[in-house]
Amino acid sequence: xxxxxxxxxxxxxxxxxxxxxxxxxxxxxxxxxxxxxxxxxxxxxxxxxxxxxxxxxxxxxxxxxxxxxxxxxxxxxxxxxxxxxxxxxxxxxxxxxxxxxxxxxxxxxxxxxxxxxxxxxxxxxxxxxxxxxxxxxxxxxxxxxx
Length: 146
Prior knowledge:
The protein is of the alpha/beta class. 38% of the residues lie in helices and 17% in strands.
């Protein structure tokens, strides 16, 4: 199957921060892709990824980033798919700077934001969004919450 959830991290050093996210998607049998794309070092690559996400079959994109955390904003500006921001604690402020950067999006580029290092919640939210149009997945989620 082709992936329906895209996960972007801004740096290879951010990969450990998404382990709970990928584990939950695997547990729920959701196909995903995981890529490293920096909005600072490769803005064209981020733009191309987001701009072609729908035609590649993605339905939700999770963006994990620390510090100034411009990744989710860069993606949200180029797609109308749901974007979930996952702020990562990597700076001197314990992730507060990433949280504020992710949550403060301008009108027209919304980003759903989970807690700092909230990788599991990012995955759960992505699956809940997918379940809105997938009754089998919705039923599986209902069964897991009983």
